[in-house]
Amino acid sequence: MFVLIIKKRKWGWILLVVENVHMVFINLILCVQMLGFKLFHVNIKPYLFSALFNLLVVGFLWRPIMAEFFGVNPIVKKRALFVGLGLGVITVCGLWFS
């Protein structure tokens, strides 16, 4: 993915957005699971900060100037977002029901 981003390829942008949207879900799942440990004092701040960082990365990449830089059109932007959201929902459902 790093090589794709360095070479300004569309797939680098897509994979980076999908990964960061998916990581938001994973970090929020970890927060919820950590809050479930009532016997121990747990610190969920790192997971919340990580989720916020991933949202900021997606927001940075979502800007029109960054999309133009990588040659991404609005349809590809929406599809990448939906793929990341779909992976996140699948992950949440898989972990919730296991």
Task: Tell me the number of strands.
Answer: 0
Mean pLDDT: 91
Category by helix and strand content? mainly alpha
User: What percent strand?
Assistant: under 5%
Q: Provide the gyration radius in Å.
A: 15 Å
| Uncertain runs | none
How much helix is in the residues? over 70%
Into how many domains do the coordinates divide?
A: 1
Shape: elongated
Sheet with most strands: none
* Multimeric organization: single chain
- Please give the alpha-carbon distance between the first and last residues: 31 Å
The helix tally amounts to 5
Name the helix and strand elements from N-terminus to C-terminus, one letter apiece. Answer: HHHHH
Report on the structure:
- The protein has helices spanning 2-6, 10-35, 45-62, 64-70, 74-96.
- The chain has 5 helices and no strands.
- Helix 2 (10-35) runs antiparallel to helix 3 and helix 2 packs parallel to helix 5 (74-96).
- It has 98 residues and is mainly α.
- The mean pLDDT is 91.
- The chain has one domain (2-38, 48-96).
Highlighted features:
elongated; 81% helix
What's the gist of this structure?
With 98 residues, this protein is mainly α. It has one domain (2-38, 48-96). It has helices spanning 2-6, 10-35, 45-62, 64-70, 74-96.
Outline the fold blueprint.
Layout lengths: L1 H5 L3 H26 L9 H18 L1 H7 L3 H23 L2
